[in-house]
Structures
1.
Amino acid sequence: MKLGTITSFVVAIVVLSLPAAVYAQRMPYVVGITLEQARKAAAAAQTEQKKMNMPTGVAIAVLDSGCNLVLLEKLDNTNLAGYR
């Protein structure tokens, strides 16, 4: 009977500690990037693409801190397989 009590106690400790472990892994909330900031970042990327004299077009994607798409810009002559 003692083994069952000890096992139950260990299981209870593990179950009660799970929310703390999950909470510790969450990223803190931060203010996301605005559309205007995303447009400025895309413009800077387009300027850099022109400096590098890339022969083919590029697709520029701007993500926020949660990896959500904020802006996707396909430049001229971009291969259709270049973005998805």
Note: The CA atoms of residues 4 and 47 lie 68 Å apart.
2.
Amino acid sequence: MKEKAGKVMSNVDDAIQVQLAMANIYRTIGERHSDQGEYQKAVDYYMKELEFQERILGKEHIEVDLTCIRIAGEYIKMQEEEQAVEFLYHHAGIKNHF
């Protein structure tokens, strides 16, 4: 029984690692779009990264905050400062940090 439980936990850990790797892939693709000036596409990929992170790490994890900051940065590059502030306020919980 103990061996079976260990195998299940190992499979869960593997699944989590795969999902975190997917989040990192989305971040890398987003970074490439940002580097090419395709800011909306970067936002789209960062949002996919964020979905994985929130599901796996939880909304309070520092990696989630960093992704939210990246997304806000893309909005600023598109001269959508209000959208950046609104995004941080609602998604990153910036109101709780002050």
Note: The CA atoms of residues 72 and 84 lie 4 Å apart.
3.
Amino acid sequence: MTRTINEILNDWDIDTGGFATETTLEKINTNVEEYGINNIDPVSAVLTYTGKEDKDGNWLVVKIDTTTGTEITYATEANNALVTTYADAWTNHLTLTYGLFSAAF
């Protein structure tokens, strides 16, 4: 099942009035595009992790699960307070706490 951008935005709990707006997409892109990809772990045909880091050392791991549609969840220091470095985050990427965009930023 392919999900629309509006369905994904609804999962992120972003109020778009039912429509993805340019402003909403800019907010998401601003947070995510500041990160460069360091690692990719294609665990299986339906599960992939990407490890990212910004210029200040803040880390982000994105989990993409297509088991039943496409679910994108995020792990950052905001929802993993004891993991303070990218190296530790990537070492433990399979066991981090993942959540919606709003929980990670």
Note: The two ends are 27 Å apart (CA to CA).
